[in-house]
Specification:
The complex is a heterotrimer of chains A (145), B (330) and C (339). Chain A is of the alpha/beta class. Chain A has one domain: Rossmann fold, CATH 3.40.50. Chain A contains four helices and six strands; from the N terminus they run E-E-E-H-E-H-E-H-E-H. Chain A has a four-stranded parallel beta sheet, sandwiched between helices. A two-stranded antiparallel ribbon of chain A has the order 1-2. Chain B has 14 helices and nine strands. Chain B has 330 residues and is an alpha/beta fold. Chain B is globular and about 60 Å long. Chain B folds into three domains: 125 residues, no CATH class; 37 residues, no CATH class; 143 residues, no CATH class. Chain C is an alpha+beta fold. Chain C has two domains: 201 residues, no CATH class; 119 residues, no CATH class. In chain C, the strands form three sheets. In chain C, strands 3-2-6-7-8-9-1-10 form an eight-stranded mixed beta sheet. In chain C, strand 2 and strand 3 form a beta hairpin. The longest helix of chain C has 19 residues. The radius of gyration of chain C is 22 Å and the shape is globular. Classes of the chains: A alpha/beta (145), B alpha/beta (330), C alpha+beta (339).
Chain lengths: 145, 330, 339
């Protein structure tokens, strides 16, 4: 979206309840800055994220979608994030195949102790997506304001 | 030209009916023209003799009918399976989609099936299609007889046939073939080699033709959900409207994604598309990626095998790396 | 009757396109399709476009109204539809007949204004067929492919296109093109028409007879056991209904964009599981019932409500596009008893 003539990307971050959401919390507690354009959606496990969630986020106006979960091996449900890893590898590769900018999607493992990594990841992701500009290739014209 | 003759299939079917092995046979039924063949269920020898066909247009995969028939009664149904059909057969077995005990599978060798749309593009007003010295002879209403090269009229999936080997059957007619070293990923690699802008333009052009008829989904042997996510009025996604180009992309990405690791690359989606969208190139991209990322895997090659999408190793590559490597996995 | 030589046809297109939007059939990788003329395309000689011409009057998706909710207020926004004057060039006899079938549905009381507006703004220039395909059976429904209806009727010969205006709207358009066309007699057209009629008689489906079907035959056909067997191959996709020029069922749905709600209508297909789905459930739960509905509608219900006119025009699109080659001809053969 454009704010005062300047492009501010809308970022949807799916965060798993056990690690990444707590990591975001820690970032907040530690007063670490990351852009307000990041909208966090809490999910029980990164594996809960269906490919359709990611596409639907783009449809409703997201310019970038990032998925954060526990580090491989640390999943609260033992193996959820291993499945996430395979699914997203295939999905992102497919999006790239369709010509959709690969910088718009990302998976990052953030533990509950990594508040600093969470903030740094978000800052970096927002910066990359800002450089790309508005999401045009996966937009739904009906959802434009 | 198919190696096994129609008469042999009828004789086999009639024998299975007569000795009580089965009480019905799933086969192909002749239509108005030589090329419009419809899947059908036969219950008597007379029916078979009058209406059964086996020719170069028997491309339809019987998976959907097989599942339906196996659920109907306690008795067995016979089904004719081409090599590629046996992969779908195994895959359905893996997913417990039908009772193996209720099906008698007869393997039939296949020399590749013709694409009637290619013949129609080459000939106006087709009154008959036949085989002549290894070529396709078409009698037309306006230009007399036209002779076409059989190889050029083959369906895309048959040009890139992955296997002539039957991976499942109770009985095999004729000789079994081998798994082939096909060039089926070449087309995918060609698209991968394009720039992102070119790829986007390519798919935008292809997918914008979609009329949301759902034929690709309904024919797909791997689409076995009782209720499709696209048929759920509460999901907020379109199942029939051409509402926005986003919806088409989402439908086709999700359609292909939902059969990842289960798609045997039978090519039915592309065969049935009324708008000639090369849908198999989406499915093949996933297959190619699976092979490149997690090791070669052919869905349906072995009943009971575990698909890579429901499996993992601790050393799997990260999604970020996958995207970087995407195009390089030949 | 007016004529123009073939090499000047593009000039004529340019002239029409300078005043109205002009749509002509163009060959593409996926078969012929109507495209807006921009001076670069050449007209396709294909018999049928892959999708029918009904889209011009009854598009697959159409926005009806938008709602915006803010606090306790609901703002209702009627869409501003600007209807352009347009010309469809080269519609075949079957497609032109389909407009009449749609008219009887959409222009009957209560009139569908969206459809009516488009219909009033469109001029249909039809093209007589000379080489009907093996799948053509418009003759079964009394349509003469050699002499279509339409505002202007065209005949294309080896070197010229002949025009004959049939309505006031057509006469007006044709008159505006007088500078490009010349007056002529109908000899060439008559010869071609006679020739085409001979071809039509020899088509493989020429003997297909619909007389067993028609108005008030519901009880005769509804409970026939054959429905079970012929519907068995049907996959329940919507290909036949979406390429059909006369299928007119639609659904009205809401889409929540996040900012507002868009109410739109889109084509529906009686083959789909959510067709006729209502609060209490679905009245047609099996594919047999859905399959029967489609053909009973075309062959019995529509004629019952419309003075015996059939709801099929014999264009053959469903024959060409059905994934499993099950189509209305096979249904008519099986139930109507004609071989």
């Amino acid at each position: 979206m454009q704010v005062n003539g300047e492009f501010k990307p809308l970022i949807v971050a799916f965060c798993c309840n056990w690690c990444s959401y707590a990591g975001a919390d820690l970032a907040g507690n530690n007063r670490l800055n990351y852009p307000a354009e990041v909208k966090i959606i809490r999910v029980p496990c990164s594996c809960r994220v269906n490919p359709m969630f990611i596409l639907r986020a783009f449809q409703r106006g997201a310019d970038g979608v990032i998925l954060c979960g526990c580090h491989p091996g640390d999943c609260h449900y033992t193996s959820g994030n291993y499945y996430t890893r395979r699914r997203m590898a295939l999905l992102f590769s497919m999006l790239d195949y369709l010509g959709i900018e690969k910088e718009r999607t990302r998976v990052e493992w953030v533990s509950a102790a990594e508040g600093a990594k969470f903030a740094a990841t978000m800052n970096d992701f927002v910066e990359k997506v800002t450089a790309l500009g508005e999401n045009k290739r996966l937009e739904d014209l009906r959802c434009k304001k | 030209m198919q190696e096994i003759k129609r008469e042999d299939l009828i004789a086999k079917a009639a024998q299975l009916l007569a000795d009580g092995t089965v009480d019905r046979v799933i086969g192909w039924k002749k239509g108005e023209f030589d090329y419009d063949v419809t899947p059908a269920v036969f219950t008597s020898k007379e029916e078979l003799e009058n209406e059964f066909v086996w020719n170069d247009f028997c491309g339809a995969n019987f998976s959907k009918y097989l599942r339906k028939e196996a659920e109907k009664t306690e008795s067995k149904a016979a089904v004719f399976l081409k090599p590629c059909d046996t992969y779908s057969f195994n895959q359905l077995l893996t997913e417990h989609k039908f009772d193996r005990e209720k099906v008698y599978a007869v393997g039939v060798p296949c020399n590749g099936m013709l694409d009637d749309s290619k013949i129609k593009a080459a000939a106006n007003g087709i009154s008959s299609v036949s085989e002549e010295n290894g070529k396709v002879a078409v009698e037309t209403l306006y230009d007399g007889k036209i002779t076409l090269e059989r190889n050029e009229m083959l369906a895309e999936r048959c040009v890139n046939c992955k296997s002539k080997k039957h991976v499942a059957y109770d009985e095999l007619l004729g000789e079994d073939g081998e798994v082939l070293d096909s060039a089926r990923f070449d087309e995918v690699a060609k698209i991968e080699a394009m720039s992102a802008d070119e790829r986007f333009a390519f798919w935008q052009n292809e997918l914008s033709r979609c009329i949301r008829c759902n034929a690709c989904r309904n024919i797909c042997p791997a689409c076995t959900c009782e209720k499709c996510v696209f048929d759920n009025p509460d999901s907020g996604v379109e199942n029939k409207a051409i509402a926005d180009s986003f919806e088409e992309k989402m439908f086709h990405i999700i359609r292909a994604f939902h059969v990842v690791g289960r798609c045997t690359d039978c090519g039915e989606c592309s065969r049935v598309c009324p708008q000639n969208i090369p849908l198999h190139l989406l499915n093949r991209k996933f297959i190619k990626d699976i092979n490149g990322f997690y090791g070669d895997y052919q869905a349906g090659a072995e009943a009971g095998s575990r698909a890579p999408i429901v499996d993992f190793t601790k050393e799997d590559l990260e999604p970020g790396e996958a995207v970087e490597r995407g195009g390089e996995n030949a | 009757m007016r004529k123009i030589s073939l090499d000047k046809l593009n000039q004529l297109f340019a002239e029409i396109a300078s005043k109205n939007s002009l749509y002509i059939p163009v060959d593409t990788a996926a078969g012929a399709k109507y495209e807006k003329y921009d001076g670069t395309q050449t007209m396709s000689d294909a018999l049928n476009t892959t999708r029918s011409a009904k889209d011009f009057f009854f598009p697959q998706t159409e926005n009806l109204v938008d709602f915006k909710v803010e606090g306790k207020n609901i703002e209702i926004k009627e869409p501003v539809n600007e209807y352009e004057d347009f010309v469809i060039f080269g519609a075949r006899a079957c497609d032109v007949k389909s407009f009449e079938i749609l008219d009887r549905v959409f222009l009957a009381d209560p009139v569908d204004n969206f459809y009516k507006n488009r219909r009033e703004h469109g001029v249909v220039v039809s093209m007589a067929c000379t080489k009907p395909a093996e799948t053509c059976f418009c003759g079964t429904f009394g349509i003469d492919a050699a002499a279509p209806a339409g505002d202007i009727v065209c005949h294309k010969t080896a070197d010229a296109v002949y025009f004959d205006a049939k309505t006031d709207k057509g006469a007006k358009l044709l008159e505006s093109l007088n500078a490009l066309t010349e007056d002529t007699d109908s000899a060439a057209v008559d010869a071609q028409t006679a020739q085409t009629r001979e071809v039509l008689k020899k088509l493989p489906l020429a003997g297909l007879d619909a007389s067993a079907f028609g108005a008030d035959k519901t009880m005769e056909f509804f409970n026939r056991p054959e429905w079970q067997t012929i519907s068995e191959s049907c996959l329940g996709c919507g290909t036949c209904t979406f390429v059909c020029p006369t299928c007119q069922c639609y659904d009205i749905k809401d889409f929540n964009t996040g900012n507002e709600v868009k109410r739109y209508r889109c084509w529906d297909s009686c083959m789909y599981s959510d067709f006729t789905k209502m609060a209490h459930g679905n009245i047609r739960n099996s594919q047999v019932e859905r399959f029967r509905q489609r053909f009973m509608h075309k062959l019995v219900y529509y004629p019952t409500n419309n003075e015996g006119i059939f709801g099929c025009v014999g264009c053959g699109r469903c024959m060409a596009k059905c994934p499993v080659n099950m189509n209305i001809v096979k249904v008519m053969r099986k139930l109507g008893g004609n071989k």
